[in-house]
Amino acid sequence: MTKLRSVFPLLFALLFALAALPAPAADSIDLSRLIPVPADQPIPVVDFFRPPALQDPKVNPSGTHIAALVTGASDKVLLLINDLKAKKTEVTGGPNDVNVTTFNWLNDHRLIYGLGAPARGNLGLLAVDVEKIKRSYPILQYYNETLLNIPKDDRTHPVVWASFDGLDTYKQMGVVVVDTDNQSGDFVDLTSIVKDSLGNPKAKENNTIHIKKSYPQLEHGWATRYITDQNGALDFGTSASKGVNSLYHLTGQAWTECPVDLDQISIVDAGSKPGELAVVGPRNTGQPSPLQFMDGATGKLGEVLIEDKEYDFNGYLYRDPGSRTIVGAVYNRSGPKAVWFHPTYAKLQEVLNGFFPGVIARIIGTNEKGDLVLVSTSSDRQPLSYQWVDLATKNVGLIKNSAPWIDPKRMQPMSMIKFKTRDGHKLDAYVTMPAGASKQNPPPLVVLPHDGPIARDTWGFNSEVQFFASRGYAVLQPNYRGSPGTSWMFPESDDWDYAKMSDDVTDATKMLVSSGLVDGKRVAIVGTSFGGYLALQGATSEPDLYRCAAAITGTFDWEQLVNDAKFNRYTDPQYDRWIHKLGDPDKDKARYDAMSPIHRINRLHIPVFTAVGREDSQAIVAQSKGLVSQLERNNVPHESLTLGGVGRGMAYAKNRVEVYTQLEAFLAKHLK
Predict the structure, then answer these.
(1) pLDDT, mean of residues 618-627
(2) Is the per-residue pLDDT at 164 higher than 70?
(3) Please, which residues bridge with residue 54 across strands?
(4) 254-257 and 244-251: which strand pairing?
(5) What 8-state DSSP symbol labels residue 493?
(6) 482 and 584 share a domain?
(7) Which pLDDT score, from 0 to 100, does residue 159 have?
(8) Are the C-beta atoms of 645 and 614 separated by less than 8 Å?
(9) How many Cβ atoms are within 10 Å of 253's Cβ, its own excluded?
(10) CATH code of 461's domain
């Protein structure tokens, strides 16, 4: 595989399609530049927080077309379809701020895709043929829909989990098989939501004409997940009732509860045959949990696929698109790792590693024949870049870099270290140093605890980390207890011990400060969502460790959050889950106070930066308002930012730029 075919026709087609996207509105940021700024200029904030130019490329079964999600000179996601033979590229999508959220190939000529808007959630599921790209037709409208599988032998009738919030008759619609051969139905204008007489979103009546089959609903509590077998038939479901998650097997037309403790067993995916699941567990403190098969109906464990000596399995399976058999798995250790069970894929990985040295080369898809391979490449300094490899002709070509405006030469390398917790365990953390840093010139430090807690940091490109490094800060990313891959070290109760997680972040910070690599007198802690909670928890628990703190959303009063959730307990299982795992705040007030920084604001003598979206959930907005109130009451210097037109996660690039521009000024002021 040494011959590189010219890819200019494909690349120009993609660039032309991107350039044809709508121009930015007058009050938005400029996203039209697709190249890095000159090396003698500072890298703009927007370059770290703009949406990817291209993501999630997928090839159709025969390998004649590649589709992907794209953005151009606007903060909007469209669906791009490229005809490889004709070198023709077209795009489709929703109006105004409506984005394409997901897509999949049904067959060589038809795709199914979802639409959604940042403040309104999922709006519809549509189908489109490549020959009629401007004529999409609706399958479901105004449902929360999740595509579960595309049946191997009936690809135009995918299996979909659909629920409808706001109208009781549709609320528990469950799993259906939808008919994409039926091209009737007019898709309504998605700039406004159709509502019923009570003001609730209203399902369009033509949804039912696309439903070919309905599976029996899983009504044992609240359905939280559905799982099909590898051929696309519904096989298992999970539900939540009174804080306990349970597994059910579909036998005939009835759901049968399985003897499986889902607090001990984590389901990764369907197994290799009906009735089988790929799982992690059961939990055995002191020994990492492997990836293995399990008979779902009996709970009997079977063949072990991956058994790591240092990490619980925490990843996903890869299936061959033709046979649908499991041929590999990808998971995180200190960095990403791929394990291939099939010799053909193992050999292909060796070839790719040789062809793309110095980066992580990952197989992300193939056509059914297996001779056209889509590959992603990345590193700690390079954002994801997508390539295609033609094994038959030994040609390789670039599809597109996800962030062509980032110059890898100006990014900084990331290192992995181990830190010791106060109870004697060793956990991973990642350190990125700015240019010019040394023990003789130690830089200020930004501690960046990740969101979660069921998430983890790993080695690779991180735009937020590189933003801080470009501004002269070292960055520390500690994986605290509860981060996937680490559960085997701790008792199950530690998965819900948020105060101990904060202690882990403190221990990692103190270790790095003691090394002399960073300036221990200039340390900030910054986080988003659960990371925002950890930032304030750490700052109030260790008021002399940090010079300033920043929380972009977050929970600061767990008692209030749980009590607020009580009002939705009949429509959301989260309240019962918290009561089951954290305890009742009325009966265990001491525990709630210990893990809630709102009760220790009087200990703060450092400046605090907060940000929240006006359209975040009422509970999250209330948390931020309560924090600001306590900061003012205790005369703690602070800056607060409330963003309009944005939901949780800062869905709009202009809002992300506003937050980090102000955060940059805040850190510069207090870490001088």
Answers:
(1) 91
(2) no
(3) 70
(4) antiparallel
(5) G
(6) no
(7) 97
(8) yes
(9) 7
(10) 3.40.50.1820
Q: CA of 655: how far to CAs of 47, 55, 204, 612, in Å?
A: 13, 21, 33, 10
Please count the other Cβ atoms lying within 10 Å of the Cβ belonging to residue 64: 17
Q: How confident is the model at residue 279 (pLDDT cuts 50, 70, 90)?
A: very high
Amino acid 339: pLDDT: 98
* Alpha helices (runs of H) in 459-529, residue ranges in sequence order: 463-470, 498-514
Residue 442: is the preceding peptide bond cis (ω within 30°)? no
Given 593, 618, 641, the domain boundary residue is: 593
Q: Give the model's pLDDT for residue 457.
A: 97
Cβ proximity of 174 and 234 under 8 Å: no
| CB of 74 closer than 8 Å to CB of 24 | yes
Q: Are residues 440 and 569 in the same domain?
A: no
Same structural domain for residues 480 and 625? yes
Mean pLDDT of 409-432: 98
Q: What is the CB neighbour count within 10 angstroms for residue 105?
A: 24
In a domain, 179, yes or no: no
Q: How confident is the model at residue 496 (pLDDT cuts 50, 70, 90)?
A: very high
Q: Which two tokens stand for residue 295?
A: 């008979």
Q: Which residue carries 């009738």 as its tokens?
A: 157
Q: How many Cβ atoms from other residues are within 10 Å of residue 325's Cβ?
A: 11
The whole model's pTM is what? 0.93
Domain-embedded: residue 429: yes
Q: Are residues 415 and 546 in the same domain?
A: yes
- DSSP label at 475? E
Q: Which residues contact 514 (CB under 8 A, 6 or more apart)?
A: 520
- 371 neighbors 63 (Cβ within 8 angstroms): yes
Compute the distance between CA of residue 645 and CA of residue 441 in angstroms, rounded to an integer: 42
Residues 6 or more apart in contact with residue 424 via CB below 8 angstroms: none
Summarize pLDDT for 535-560 with one digit per residue, the tens: 999 999 999 999 999 999 999 999 99
The total number of structural domains that make up the chain: 2
pLDDT grade for 185, boundaries at 50, 70 and 90: low
The owner of tokens 């997901």 is: 102
Note if the bond before 453 is cis, omega within 30 degrees.
yes
Residue 256 lies in a domain: no
One-letter amino acid identity for 212?
K
For the segment 73-111, what is each residue's pLDDT rounded down to a tens digit? Answer: 788 999 999 999 999 999 999 888 889 999 999 999 999
Q: Are residues 462 and 552 in the same domain?
A: yes
Closest to 104 measured CA to CA, from 154, 162, 164, 57: 57
Kindly state whether residues 624 and 646 are assigned to the same domain: yes
How buried is 184 (Cβ within 10 angstroms: 0-12 exposed, 13-18 middle, 19+ buried)? exposed
Q: Is residue 47 part of a domain?
A: no
Instruction: Determine the pLDDT at residue 18.
Output: 47
Residue 451 has pLDDT above 90, yes or no: yes
Residues 6+ apart with CB under 8 A from 69: 52, 54, 55, 56, 77, 78, 79, 80, 100, 103
Number of other residues whose CB lies within 10 A of the CB of residue 198: 8
What CA–CA distance (Å, rounded) separates 482 from 560?
23
pLDDT reported for residue 170:
41
For the segment 388-405, the average pLDDT, to the nearest whole number, is 91
Q: Where a domain ends, among 567, 593, 619? A: 593
CA distance 500 to 190: 45
Identify whether residues 542 and 574 lie together within a single domain.
no
Range of the domain at 458: 408-558+594-670
Closest alpha carbon to 555 in 603, 499, 602: 499
Three-class SS of residue 578? helix
Element (H, E) at 17: helix 8-19
Q: In degrees rounded to 5, what are phi and psi of residue 237?
A: -145, 155
Q: Quote the percentage of the chain above a pLDDT of 90.
A: 77
Contact 87, 9 (CB under 8 A): yes
Kindly state whether residues 436 and 482 are assigned to the same domain: yes
Structure confidence at residue 171 (pLDDT): 47
CB of 485 within 8 A of CB of 311?
Answer: yes
